[in-house]
């Protein structure tokens, strides 16, 4: 565990790109679209509760369409849509979601919620190679950025969930923030 550094080096085992479901925020999606020109309707999918584990039923980012619930995720079949198997690298590395940037790190806080340190998640299948050094300040900055985006994400989902109209689909959520982000 480290207040300033964490011993870690990615060896490109591809665990995070093949076994982990990435749940981007709308800000992540906007960044990917702006920096890569990728079409979000092609790189996103919407998962139902039986397709994803580790997300509480009470999570405020569940999209509701009729009686069904959906979670926005990067599309994957056997791997993330952005993983280039030839190079074993992410095609959108510089624009990748914050969740991808923070994996496999875990924030540790004091009892009063102040930053204490970062460590490596112990309950994930990443090999967690410790032959490198990751500085915690950039990780903490990403964590804070993600925290700021989470409330906006929840607010946007609440607006989407209040809307009721014939033919409503989870993909309609994308239009709420991507098409309106061109002016941002």
Please tell me about this protein's structure.
The structure is a single chain. The protein has 184 residues and is α+β, with helices and mostly antiparallel strands. The protein has one domain (5-178). It contains six helices and nine strands, in the order E-H-H-H-E-E-E-E-E-H-E-E-E-H-H. The strands form four sheets. The protein has a three-stranded antiparallel beta sheet. The chain has a two-stranded antiparallel ribbon with strand order 1-9.
Keywords summarizing the entry:
single chain; 184 residues; alpha+beta; two-stranded antiparallel sheet; globular
In short:
By secondary structure, this protein is an alpha+beta fold. Helix content is 31%, strand content 19%.
| Helix content percent band | 25-40%
Low-confidence stretches: none
Q: Report the end-to-end length measured between terminal Cα atoms.
A: 38 Å
Supply the number of helical segments. Answer: 6
Quickly count the domains. Answer: 1
Order of helices and strands: EHHHEEEEEHEEEHH
Topology, element by element:
Elements: E1 5-7, H1 15-18, H2 26-36, H3 40-43, E2 44-47, E3 63-65, E4 68-74, E5 83-84, E6 89-90, H4 98-102, E7 105-109, E8 115-120, E9 133-135, H5 136-162, H6 172-177
Antiparallel strand pairs: 1-9, 2-4, 3-4, 5-6, 7-8
